[in-house]
Amino acid sequence: MNRQILTDLLRKRDFKAVRSILEVMYTVDIAALLAELDDKEMILAFRLIEKAKAAEVFAEMSSSMQAYLVEMFTEKELKELLDELYMDDTVDLLEELPANLVTRILEQVDREKRAQINTILNYPEDSAGSIMTTEYVDLRRTTTVREAMEHIKQTGIHKETIYTCYVLENRKLIGIVSAKDLMTMDDDLTMDELMEKEIISVTTHTDQEEAVRLLSRYNLLSLPVLDQQGYMVGIVTIDDAMDVLVDETTEDMEIMNALSPSEQPYFETGVFRHAKNRIVWLLFLMLSATLTQTIIAHYEAAFTAVPLLVSFIPMLTDTGGNCGSQSSTLIIRGLALDEIHFGDIFRVVFKEFRVAILVGAALAIVNGVYMVIRYRDPMLALLVSISLVATILIAKMIGCVLPLFAKKLHMDPAIMAAPLITTIVDVCSIMVYFQVATHLLGLI
Amino acid sequence: MNRQILTDLLRKRDFKAVRSILEVMYTVDIAALLAELDDKEMILAFRLIEKAKAAEVFAEMSSSMQAYLVEMFTEKELKELLDELYMDDTVDLLEELPANLVTRILEQVDREKRAQINTILNYPEDSAGSIMTTEYVDLRRTTTVREAMEHIKQTGIHKETIYTCYVLENRKLIGIVSAKDLMTMDDDLTMDELMEKEIISVTTHTDQEEAVRLLSRYNLLSLPVLDQQGYMVGIVTIDDAMDVLVDETTEDMEIMNALSPSEQPYFETGVFRHAKNRIVWLLFLMLSATLTQTIIAHYEAAFTAVPLLVSFIPMLTDTGGNCGSQSSTLIIRGLALDEIHFGDIFRVVFKEFRVAILVGAALAIVNGVYMVIRYRDPMLALLVSISLVATILIAKMIGCVLPLFAKKLHMDPAIMAAPLITTIVDVCSIMVYFQVATHLLGLI
Predict the structure, then answer these.
(1) Which of the four CATH numbers 1.20.1250.20, 1.10.357.20, 3.30.930.10, 3.40.47.10 does domain A289-440 have?
(2) Would you state the pLDDT for residue A443?
C-alpha cells in the first residue's frame, strides 16, 4: 500500500475504498502510512479507521502525531479513543504529551482510571511499574476450568493478554494458570488443582531490564507485577518486553560509543539534538587527552633524538584501545546478560591476564619480525614489541576491571567502554613506551 | 535451592525429597543447578525428573551436558527423551552433538521425524528454517470454534504453541486464528469467518533476524514459515525469537569491538579460544597501522622543527576515532532496526555533514581557547583547531558511509565500526594535520 494511492482516494472522497483498505492493513503499517500524509489528510484517514482498531493504530504512532490528534479531536472522539486504549498505551501517551493536553485527557477518563494512571505515572522511569498494564484476567481459587473459560468469553476481549491468568486471594497473587491449561484440561478441575504455585514476579520498582530478563529466562508471555505491600497491580507483557530489550541494547551501544542515548530514531532527531548528544562526551574525552599532551611533551628529548619513535605512537595506542575495548565489551555484555557478576572479579582478571599474555606474545612476534625486516634495527623492534606487550596487558586489565567496578558502584557499566578505555590506555601506553625507550636506547 | 542440599539428599539416597524439589522448580533453574553437580550426581538427579519435564530441562542444558547424557542413556531412555523433545530443540541438540551420537539419535526416531530433522538441519545457518519448530495447531476452513477447541483439547498439549492456529488448505496457509478468538467468539462460527487473511510469513531461507523483526513489529507470538513452494512447514516462536535477538545483538557488539563473535558465554570459553577470537582483528588493525607509521615518518622534518606538534597526535586521532564511531554506531544500529536503508545515503551524508560542522566548531573553539591560554601561541592553536574540524568532518563522513556500503555489498555493517574507522581516520587526520602544519607554520 503506498501513500499516493491513499492520497488520491482521499482527494476523490472515496471513503468507502479507504475504509476497505484500512480494514485489511495491520495497525503498525497503517501508523507508518499515516506518518507520510500531511496533517489534514492524516486526521481524515484516521477518522475512517474502525474504533477499536483506531486505538491500536494510535498506540503505534509517534508522539508528535499523537499530540496533534489529541489537539484536533472533539471531546467525544477523545473519550472513544481513551475507552479503547490499553492502560500502558494511555500512560505512554501521557508521558509524552504537553501539559495542557494531559489535563484534557485526564478530564475525559473516569475517576478509577485516573487514579490508576496517576499511580503508574509516578513509578520510576524504566521500572516495571512504568511499563506494566493494569488489565489482566484474574480468577479465584475455587473457579473451575469451565467457569474460567466462561469468564474469559465475557470479559477477555478487553484484556491485553488472556494467555496467562492470575489466581488472586484478597488481592494477593497465589497462583498462575495458562490458557493452554484451561484449553486442554478437564472442565471440572478448579484453579487450586491446576495452578502453578511457584510464582515468578517483580515489584513495581524492579528495573525493567530485570523484568525482561525474567520473561526471557522463563519463557513467559507475561510477568505479574506486585506493589510494595505484595498486592498484584499489573503485568508486563512479552511484546513490551521485546521493545524494552531493543531500546536498552540501543542505549548500551550508544553509551559504549560516546553518544548520549536518544530514544528517537535517527531521522526523527534534529541536527542540533544530534550534535548535542555527541559533543558532551567528545569534549570530556578531548580535555582528558591534554594529559597525554603533557606526557608526550615531557619526553621531547627522546623523540627529537630518535624521531622514528613518534611514528609508532598511533599503532601502540590504537592496539591498546582495541584490546581494552575487546575486554570491556565482553564484560559489559556479560554483566547485562547476568552471566558475570562483581564477585567474579578475580576469575575475570586471571582469565584476561592469560589472554593478554597470549595476545601480546602473538602481536609482539609479528611486529618484531616486521620491524626487523623493514627497519633492520633489532633494538627498535624489541623496544616497540615490549611496549606492545605491556600496553596490551594494561589495556586488558583496565578494560575488564572498570566495568565491574562501575556495576558495583551502581553506575551503568556501558560507560566504561572503548572511548574512555582508549583515553586511559593512551596515557599508560605512551608512558610505558617512552620509559622503555629511555632505558633501552639509553636516551636522556 | 542450592547445590549442597541436593548433593546431601542424593548421598542419603532420599530420592523422594529430591523428586519433590525438582517437581516445583522451574526447568531453567533445574538445568542451572544440575550444571553445578558432578557427572554422576547429575545423571542421577536427571533420572529423578518426571519425563515430560525432563525433556524441557534437557533443552535448557549446555551442549556438553547434553552430549554426556546422550552417551550415558540407555536406548529406552533416549527414546523417551526424544519423544518428549520439541522438534526445534531436537535439531539444536543434533547441531551440537559429535557425529557418533547424532547417528545414535537418528536411529531412535521414526522415519517421519528423521525426515523432518534432516530437512531442518539442511537449512542455512541463521535462517528461519533452522530455528523453526514443525509442531503447530492446524485447522481447516470449515472447522467451527467448538470443533477447534475440541481438537486443541485432544492434541494441543503436544504442540509447542497453541495460541496461534493456522488454517490450511492443501498444505497452503490461508488464514490465521488466535486462541483469543477461539476463546471469546461464538462457538458456531467457522474458521473461514474468523480468520485473519492478511498473513505475515517468512520462508525457510529468510534470515532469522528478519523473522524476529516481523514478530516484534506485528506483536506476534509465532510466525509461520513457508517452504520455497509456499507450503507451510513450521513456525518460529516468540521465546526463540527473544534468544535470537539477544544473540544477534551480542554478536553485533562483539564485531563492533574487534572481536570474532562467539556463541559461548564468557566463562565457558577457554583462554586459547578467547585469544584466538581477539588476535585476528588485532593483527589486521596493527598491520594496517603501518601506513600511519610511513606517513608520520614522512613528516619527520616538521615535528623535529616543532616537537610540540607530536603531543597533539593522540588527541586528534582519538577525537577522530570517537566521532567516526559515533556516526557508524548510529548507522549500524539504524540498519539493524530497519530504520535506515542504503537509499537514504544522501540524507544521511547531509545530516552528518551538518552535525560534523556543529560538533567541529564547538570542539575547535574550546580547544583553541584552551591552547591559547596554555601555550600562548595563537598560530599553534589555529593549526590544531583547523585540523580538528577537518578530522571530525572526515571521520563523520567515513563513519556514516562505510556501514551503508557494507550493507549494499551484503556484508555485515557491524564490521565498519570503531576499530576499523579509527584506523582509517588515523591516516586521514595525521595527513591533514601535518599538511596544515607545513603550510601554516611555513615548515619544510
Answers:
(1) 1.10.357.20
(2) 61
